[in-house]
Design brief:
about 550 residues, alpha+beta, Chloramphenicol Acetyltransferase, 5 domains, 16 strands, about 45% helix
Amino acid sequence: MIPLSFAQRRMWFLAQLEGPSATYNLPLALRLTGKLDSDALTSALWDVIGRHEILRTVFPSVDGQPHQVVLPVDETAFDLTTAEVSPHELTGSLSQTAAEPFDLAGSVPVRARLFTTGPDEHVLLMVIHHIAWDGESMKPFMRDLSKAYRARLAGRAPDWAPLPVQYADYALWQREVLGDEDDPLSLLSEQVTYWRTALAGAPEELELPFDRPRPAVDSVTADSVAQPADVHGREKENQQEIWEVRISSLLPGLSPRSQGLDAEHVARLAELDGPLPPILVDRRTMRVIDGMHRLMAAFGRGQEAIGVKFFDGSAEEAFLYAVEANVTHGLPLSQADRRAAAAKIIKSHPHMSDRAIARASGLGAKTVAAVRRQLGDVVQLRMRIGRDGKVRPVSGDDGRRRAAELIAERPEASLREVARLAGISPATVSDVRRRLRAGEVPVIEGEPGEPGKATTTPLRVARVKSERKVELLDADPSSVLDKLLRDPSLRHKEEGRNLLRLLQQNAVGMRQRSELTAAVPPHCGALVVNLARQYAETWLEFAQKLDEQMQSTHRSAAGE
């Protein structure tokens, strides 16, 4: 059985809670003028329903659990009904049709009715339940309906390839990615746990002022409220205005694209229906920051003007904005262009952290760090601004020393407060506090990432004369495991979750070692001993391979 997506399940639950209702019916009324071939329109609607499985899907339940059933086209109950109404009856007829509820378990979530109000005057009303339709659905629906209708007028079926992905595929993919709520390592479990914690203690109902009592039954009606003039004024101030600017007055900007414009991309943009999105222009120089492809497409269309949003800032900030814009949308930047852009940002913004530059340029933080090392003439600052906008020390030692000073000055301060002032994580502050209480220095000897000091790892396996030497963790392994269990880079990948499960099972075994030893009967002892040794050997080989991989990565990053 195909499960529902989580959005669909919400719609299904509300339908069960409310009973037959039109609350989530989404009507789409299209006014059609001129000669209309109703038979061709009916065939076109069938073409679209056949192309999009979600429009011929029903949602029955078994033992109270809903699932999706995609009906074959020849088993789908759908028809375009027609009615003749006078113009003054049209609104009431549309409202009445839109208010008819759907039986999600037994009928498809779409209906169509064609109202004729006069010679060559029609209104096509499509009503689709929200379980199968949202605001983003309208564009592909209208595109396919128009294409199918033109084809049927010509006496043929529409010429289109089958869709590579249907909504049912998305629902299955979503379940696979988010996992099961009962699995504590799943992404879904993590999200649910977060929101339960964040909303703990929140009131069931947010008490807001009102001018009339809440009705006992939801009327599902709406009203309008006139806004004062100053509200509109404030809204306008918060919006970035779009200006129509003559194309001849605009100049090319400093683009992160080393290969210049892509003629094919310009041609594709020029063929799009409707106006092109506005471009971003430096107000001081009238140079384009983002949108040269759109500008040339508009020029190719024969336009004399284009929509423009103005940017007020320095040339360095304009280039940074251009890189961010080209990374997040439009034609992707090449890897070489991203590295070159990162190098330029490092020189113009030496205070930005590697992660912040990585997010702006679309690279990894390690790649940015390698680029930074190649730029030997760049001044290395002691503090950097992270991607969250916070200032943090480049060296972890500086943050630890500052945290030790704050703890001595303000012993009553919370971990979060000290972390915020020192620019380090609360976990690091906790470690500094523990070390101070034990009479140790706050700085870890040989902290990773600090030049000139040997880097030690919590668990290291090395071959010495064909023997493995294992340096065990000083700390409780369970605390290290808890840290790994919270790491999203492991939790959000299936292979990472499998590794965490194995580590978690081994951690449980270590805590219960005496109980497990006592549970082995004498006749099974030799077998368990051999298995345990074999598993231990497997883990040692895994640790050796991982250690070698880490050392190789470290040497590559260091340019050795």
